[in-house]
Amino acid sequence: MQPYGNPKVKIKHKKLPGRVVVIADRCKGCDYCIDYCPRDVLVRSEGFNTKGYHPPKVANEDACTFCGLCERICPDFAIYLEHENTQRITIQEPRRKQNIEFFPSPLRGEFFMQGDIACAEGALAAGCRFFGAYPITPASEIAEHMSVVLPRLKGVFIQFEDEIASIAGILGASWAGRKSMTATSGPGISLMNENIGLGMMMEVPAVIVNVQRGSPSTGLPTSWGQSDMMQARWGSHGDYGSIALCPKSCQEMFDLTVMAFNYSEKYRLPVFIMSDGIVGHMTEKVVIPPVEKLKLVERKYTRKTADKYKPYEAGPDLVPEFAKAGDGYRYHTTGLTHDERGYPDMSEEAHQKLVNRLVNKIKAHADDIIILEEKDTEKADVIVISYGITSRLSAPAIAIAKKKGIKVGSLRLVTVWPFPEKRIRELSKRVSGFVVPEMNLGQIVLEVERCSGKNCTVAGIGHAGGGIIRTEDIVKAITEAAHGKKK
Amino acid sequence: MNEKKKDLTLSIPKEEIMQPGHLACQGCGASLAMRYALKALGRNVILDIPACCWAVIDGPFPYSATGVPIYHTAFETAAAVASGISNGLRSVGKSGATIMAWAGDGGTFDIGIQALSGAAERNDDIIYTVYDNEAYMNTGIQRSSATPHGAWTTTTPVKHFKKGEKKDLDSIMVAHGIPYMATASISHPEDLIKKYQKAAKIRGTKFLHVYAPCPTGWKSDPAMTVKVAKLAVETNVFPIYEVENGNYRINIKPSKRKEVKEYLSMQGRFKHLTEEDVKYIQENIDRKWDTLLKKEQYFSSKEK
Questions:
Q1: CB-hemisphere CA count at 13 Å for A312?
Q2: Are residues A103 and A236 in the same domain?
């Protein structure tokens, strides 16, 4: 496994005299290396690096035993050991004017990779070749990575002047036949919402990544939350079906991005990836399979002749066939209510037919779209329903509750929208209670309440974001839900 | 000569309204710009800051650096909120306060231009300042439409550095017919302060474009911020001029133009440029300077 973006260093693991090398400009001055060094070899230097920190320097070289702890501990890969007989393929940082392919792409193999970058790589693997975005923390890394890689793959990266232009731009590019994506966070999504509705109405495939932060408004720009969940369902005005996927790890940032492209192509609509600041900025192992082994879905292009093609005529699957701009089909696409031919039609019948189809095309395929991760749900008294990062936060609580003798199961919503109503209704008849931890003050818990009715108790654990839900809170809620049954 | 020097020294008010303890990076040009602007405008100022570096630099209230009220607004609305405050105060019968929208180049050149254009068209009584560090520095050095040709940013990596000129927002604002538009630089504080004092006396929309180098994003030496800003003026990269009711006046004319290479070589963001690129940039700067000289020649007021 190689750290992503690190110079390729091949070291023969022999303990031989050598030296400790500090890449000063990478250092963020955390002093871990200085504090951890068992022999006090390193000290804080007086000078600054380009970031304005004091990088460490080797003061007591003779004491060094080349244990390599400083190399292991450095969060920024700014320090390494150079043994005398070490053979290094590349020594230098990726310098300008040097022709080092630092990000060979599409990547394959195992990487130590940030969630945002894994998302960008997922999009590239799925065939995304147009990316339009506007800088916003914590989603900027996706744009930065795309700006490096896309031109090399003959794709297009555009940094638009705002989020309104970003979403409008990717809808246009998708209309031209390119798989397109944008990435943003809370305030950006709020700006995009009008055009998201347009995309739903015009049925344009696209992927929108929302790396959620603490909201509302500017909120906590560098922190996390899950408070945009209902916005992904009801954000734009009007009725439409919506698909939202919730990754919990960097690996899933890759996998679910590929999946989101497949859904958007298959059902012709903008699909949300509802990540959050933790997953986006976390760095983990990511395994990228070869592109040939990924299951990719392409949109259904029409084979009808120009005179017989109706752009919004849907078959039994309720998804119309697509003709991309420039293919010789002359038609009109609009956000106005339109009939099968795409002509604006202000009649009640046309509106009923169109809006019903937009909702039903997702409802009818809900079983195909919904992915759930279930564990011990069959014999459980209490089920913890979670999504995204909260599923990882609730895992230790479930383990503690199990030790106490409570039968706990977990249900993780990989797909949050469409909501798995059927499965939750089924489970609600068997269990005594649901516990729903989430990083907002109660959004998905409302859906769980709606589906379970009076069959069982539903306890939400709200957290406004910026921190994490405490394990003891979840354990307490599980215990209470289990005791509710015994009475 | 001595007399002139004395004058310049006196033009900077001594009172410090911005206090030490702000959160800017080393050698931040934007923090200097605010310090001078507040010195010029006094304490009766309401600041309106959208998402930008200054939303962070000020620090968490009440430990904030500026001694004036701040309205921290959404990214795209600096000018609109300033309009609202200005007209709101007028409607409750309060006058005398200066309303200053203080936005970065991203929030002005890109996402905020719609609101700015609206406020300028209505000629609302505000001062709009853009402190221009030529990229989105707060989110991590992404390009903006104020980024000059040839510059590296994280979304215009070295291999695909920005191709295309900086948006000429000054001319756009002049075309709105606002009473006062001026450019200023932190390297020339006397000029900057005079312009703020002048703007405070004019009713209507005043637009000030302040050049504020960013060592973090420009990869320049933090100790050299003022020198970089000075070179930008001396090489005509950033001409200092003002347009009052359509009359152009170039405030600082370098007696001998320096080569742009000198300016570019101080910054890491231009490190990758070849001789040809530098030549292209030089030609462009000379062309723009000539245009500006012509504008001054044809559109200048007779009475000075």
A1: 27
A2: yes
CATH code given to domain B15-303: 3.40.50.970
Last residue of a domain, one of A30, A56, A82: A82
Does the CB of A144 have a partner CB in chain B at under 8 Å? yes
Q: What is the CATH number of the domain that holds A59?
A: 3.30.70.20
Contact B140 A96 (CB under 8 A): no
Query: What is each CA distance from B260 to A14, A395, B210, in whole angstroms?
Result: 52, 60, 20
How close A161 comes to chain B (CA, Å)? 5
Structural domains in chain A (count): 3
On whether both A66 and A152 belong to a single domain, the answer is no
Nearest to B26 among A52, A134, A163 (CB): A52
Choose among A97, A140, A187: nearest Cβ to B74: A187
Does B142 contact A161 at a Cβ distance shorter than 8 Å?
no
Q: Considering only CA atoms, which of B268, B60, B272, B8 is closest in space to residue B161?
A: B272
Domain end, chosen from A37, A66, A82, is at A82
Shared domain check, A169 and A78: no
pLDDT band of residue B228 (cuts 50, 70, 90) is: very high
Q: Show the tokens assigned to A217.
A: 């408004």
Local structure of B115: helix, strand or coil? helix
pLDDT in tens, B1-32: 455 555 555 678 888 999 888 999 989 999 99
For residue A399, give the amino acid letter. A
CB < 8 Å from B in window 326-385 of A: none
- CA–CA gap between residue A65 and residue B97 (Å, rounded): 67
ipTM above 0.85, yes or no: no
Q: Exposure string (b/e) for A138-153, b if CB count within 10 Å is 16 or more?
A: bbbbbbbbbbbbbeee
Contact criterion met (CB < 8 Å) for A140 and B139: yes
| Residue B38: pLDDT band with limits 50, 70, 90 | very high
Residue A455 near chain B (CB below 8 Å): no
- Are residue A128 and residue A249 in the same domain, yes or no? yes
Domain ranges in chain B are: 15-303
B172 phi/psi in degrees, rounded to 5: -60, -45
Separation in Å, CA of A151 to nearest CA in chain B: 8
In a domain, A279, yes or no: yes
Tell me how close the Cα of B286 comes to any Cα of chain A, in angstroms.
28
Contact A50 B268 (CB under 8 A): yes
The answer to the question of residue A281 being in a domain is yes
- Kindly list the residues from chain B whose CB atom is less than 8 angstroms away from the CB atom of residue A134: 110-111
Least confident of A101-105, A268-272, B124-128, B298-302: A101-105
Cβ-based contacts of A215 with chain B (< 8 Å): none
Q: Is residue A131 part of a domain?
A: yes
Contact flag B111-A162 (C-beta cutoff 8 Å): yes
pLDDT along chain A (487 residues), means of 10: 50 56 86 88 86 86 82 87 56 42 63 93 93 93 91 89 94 92 94 95 95 91 92 94 96 95 95 95 92 89 89 91 85 89 92 95 94 92 94 94 94 95 93 94 94 92 91 93 69
Best of B61, B109, B110, B155 to mutate (most A CBs within 10 Å, chain A): B155
d(CA A324, CA A27): 49
Domain that holds residue A390: 372-482
Binary contact (A162, B154; C-beta < 8 A): no
A257 and A241 housed in the same domain: yes
Shared domain for A71 and A95, answered yes or no, is no
Query: What pTM value is reported for the model?
Result: 0.81
Q: What is the CATH number of the domain that holds A126?
A: 3.40.50.970
Mutate which of A54, A144, A160 to disrupt the B interface (most B C-beta within 10 Å)? A144
Same domain, A108 and A241: yes
Percent of chain B with pLDDT over 90: 82
Q: Which residue reads 């297009």 in tokens?
A: A156
Would you say residue A473 lies in a domain?
Answer: yes
Judge whether A161 is closer than 8 Å to chain B, CB to CB: yes
Q: Both A288 and A184 in a single domain?
A: yes
